[in-house]
Amino acid sequence: MPGIGIGIGIGFGSAGRWTRYWSSRLKSKLNNYWNLNEISGNAIDSWGDKNGTVYNVTQGSPGKIDKSYQFVADGVKRYVSCGAIVSNSYSISLWAKKTIGAINACLIGTGGTYGGLFLNGNLFKVNRKDGTLLCDWAADSWALDDGEFHHIVLTINSVGANSIIDLYYDGLKLIPKIVTAEALERIVIGNIYGNGSYSTTFTFGGNICDVALFDVLDNNEIAALYNYQKGNRVPFLSYSNSSSKKSGYAIFTFDDGLESVYTKIYNEFKVRNQKATFFLRTNAIGTAGYLSWLQANEINSHGFELGSHGQTHTQWETLTEAQLRAELDAVDLAFISNGLATPETAAYPYSNDQVWVELIAAEYYKLVRGTNASPELLPYQKPTNNKFDITQGHLANAAFDDTNVFKRIIDGLYARNSIKVFMLHNIVEANPIEGYERTVAYLTELLDYCNTAKVNVINFKDLYSLMG
Ligand SMILES: [Zn+2]
Fold it and tell me: How many angstroms separate the alpha carbon of residue 53 from the centre of ligand 1?
């Protein structure tokens, strides 16, 4: 067997960032990682993008590795809902400390109304989505109420008849079960999904931390993961300042072509050797509150990207096909007649849900940015074609009020060498309007963090060459 080769000796630092010091074999199998170290707010998925909603759970308790979430089986609805995650084969790993006498305590809800991994007294069991028993393991799987955290991994190797389910307790494999297994549908930490209402009676009693969803791990990988986390008390993603190499890509886009692009925004990128993309509403350029064409040319000359946001800012799906083509032709003409090359990328005014609009836009542009959280990038907007796992965040939304949310995403971009597109509109000195504006101080904190974290800040159109 090849060695696992997990590295050691990584220090913690407040100015650090996520790094990849652990086995590339394990890393390649990791899909989501909730370390549950937060003391408030969402349960951040620092590897994927499935942040969990936390409900009636005490955060910031001591954990096996840093902190944990504490659940109480007291008839109150408590859970961490991480949303829909579909998989036919996976390993889910966690550390848990049980409360004495825990009955029907759900460690991880996996879908349906009642599906999940439970602890029933000392017995591990897996329930089907309808609540019937799929399999359980011999009594005394977890006999010792020792007040300690234990490492638990559930592996579903396949779905359908004659599938093998494995359970590992502190690195050791219990007797495999041959069952008719069901696909993973969602992840709920510490409770079942309960048909959307969650449950008052299946909440786990005790503490849970470091929940990770992998593709199927083999015996050696699980033993190594257990021994490493046990021995070093550090997660498998840690902080380091050691590397100087950049990794990952953040793409900042600003809609509408506002005057602040020239007066407050582009220079902040320029002085940090970063790039940005500005989508112009061409018939507003040169009017009060917007860029002038002279300013647009100056910004363009410094290597920033100017894209299309339509001529009139009319939502494209409300136009006829002929009107949309006229709108996009007018944008091209405005760019050309003001000394600029025609735009390679665009952002939909408002939003777009129409395939016919995408198809016409694809005739004009390499990439079009949407406004939903899911990417709507042409020609790569389809998830199956989304090899860089592009997602998008609207930075002026309340979800990003806390800059730590952004920073965790940037750490994840570095660790995964992945891409995220961010949307903004206006930047002001003070008193920003929620949903539309952020302050200069907010923007510069984000840009500084990108450089600290060694994440590339690039133009939107550069995606095209990155994706090949
Ligand atoms: Zn707009």
Answer: 30
